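=== RUN LOG ===
request id: a7f3
mode: sequence -> structure
chains: 1
length: 255
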Amino acid sequence: MGEEQYDPGDFSDTALGLVSTQSFPAIVGTADMMLKSAEVALVGYEKIGSGHCTAIVRGGISDVRLAVAAGVEAAEQFGQLVSSLVIARPFPNLEAVLPIGKLLAEVAQGSQSSRLSNQAIGLLETRGFPAMVGAADVMLKSADVQLSAHETIGAGLCTVIIRGAVADVAVAVEAGMHEAERIGELHAVMVIPRPLSDLEQTLPIASCWIEQPKPLRLPITAKQPAEAELIVLPSLEALPQLEVQQLEVQQLEEP
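=== RESULT ===
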């Protein structure tokens, strides 16, 4: 009896491409260039700490080679290239075990679609959280943009992500750069006009855009009427008075 072998199946003519940088804006810009240079799908990003980020694409072998070459060139222009790799005909076991993103199954089934957005994405990375928060505040006040999310990748690197019209994003990022430099250390910036839908779907998004905050509700007991579902808790100003009243009761009960 021989050992069981993995069957590459539909993977025989595909490849995985990986490009690594030391900045989140740089890896997003690199991924954007990879997607726009060849027929590949963006599987996702891997962040392993110390600022190291890797963009992973999948597609035909020739397309992946073209995409990785374009990604390497872009990362070198940003001054953030760490390494790159093309894996031709990966076995399913390799893709199943490696943490290469939640979108792999959709990419393999061809359910991903690439469409150009009419908006732009702006990314500003600082070393230090206060500089990022200050830059985000100035960006929101300087142009008609929306704060989408923020990302941390280790080594003190924090990235704020905004969305809006191309002109607004450019103005906001420029204002944020000056504020970040005033407060702390500016590490990297990136403006991506008309990003592909594949790229937008892999970027983080703040929870406030996913669900709205709900009022605090306490469970209804059998003795409570149904209309008392929403219970208003006592204000903080009333708490000290309640404590004093309880203390007086305890003193009266003592012999």
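=== NOTES ===
Helices lie at 24-37, 61-78, 92-97, 104-109, 129-142, 166-183, 197-202, 239-253.
The longest helix spans residues 61-78.
=== END ===
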